[in-house]
Each structure stands twice: as C-alpha cells, then as structure tokens.
Write a structure and sequence with these properties.
Elements (H helix, E strand, L loop, with lengths): L3 E4 L2 E4 L4 E7 L8 E7 L6 E6 L6 E3 L7 E6 L4 E6 L8 E8 L12 E2 L3 E6 L1
Parallel strand pairs: 2-11
Antiparallel strand pairs: 1-3, 3-8, 4-5, 4-9, 5-6, 7-8, 9-10, 9-11
C-alpha cells in the first residue's frame, strides 16, 4: 500500500507560481507511476500530469502544457508539480495518485489517492 500526502497549495495571484509536493509512505514508491489530478467546484475530476516510475516519461493535459512540470525524487518518496503562469481557471483541489499500471491519463488507473490540496488563483 501507498499513503499519499499533498502540500504546497494556497492562494496566489494570476501569473504567479506554486509548487505542490506529494509525499508517499512505504518503500515501494519507485514502483509506481504518479499522477496529478484536479477538481474544480461543480466539475468532474480531470487529469493534469503524470510521470513514469523512473521519471523518464511525462504527459500533460493540453491546458497545462508548457506551464506545469511534474517531477519526482524516488530517494525522497516525493512527486512534485511546479505550476507557473497560474490562471483563475487553474483553481481546484489538486490530488496526487499512484498507479501500478503505468503513467496513464485516466483516473481509473490509479489505486491510491491523497486527500488533496486547495489551489486558488485570484484574478
């Protein structure tokens, strides 16, 4: 099992930056692909970014490509999401998730989820 705890959310002005962290428990973190998803009020959860177990492959939603960067440090059992040029439409609860089936964009591939961290971008 993997337990995930996100941090780094907060309130930021449009154009600003935040870095989210997701700390994982357990010694098998490096076996999992990791993903970030977000859910805005009244909307369905959507894929943001994912990274393979070794960090060699990354994929992004079109809406964040070029602005967000996902990375991981397997020695620290942590995955990051660097978010630049934030816009009000990026406001959501951001959750990290772990997948044993690969760096996929569908939430169904992820068995373990964190509780989420709120990101609010003011205009």
């Amino acid at each position: 099992q993997v337990q995930l705890v996100e941090s780094g959310g907060g309130l930021v002005q449009a154009g600003g930056s935040l870095r989210l962290s997701c700390a994982a428990s357990g010694r098998t973190f490096s076996r999992y692909a990791m993903g970030w998803f977000r859910q805005a009020p009244g909307k369905e959860r959507e894929f943001v970014a994912t990274i393979s177990w070794d960090g060699g492959s990354t994929y992004y939603a079109d809406s964040v490509k070029g602005r967000f960067t996902i990375s991981r440090d397997n020695a620290k059992n942590t995955v990051y999401l660097q978010m630049n040029s934030l816009q009000p439409e990026d406001t959501a609860v951001y959750s990290c998730a772990a997948s044993s089936t690969g760096a996929l964009t569908t939430s169904r591939a992820y068995a373990y989820w964190g509780q989420g961290t709120q990101v609010t971008v003011s205009s």
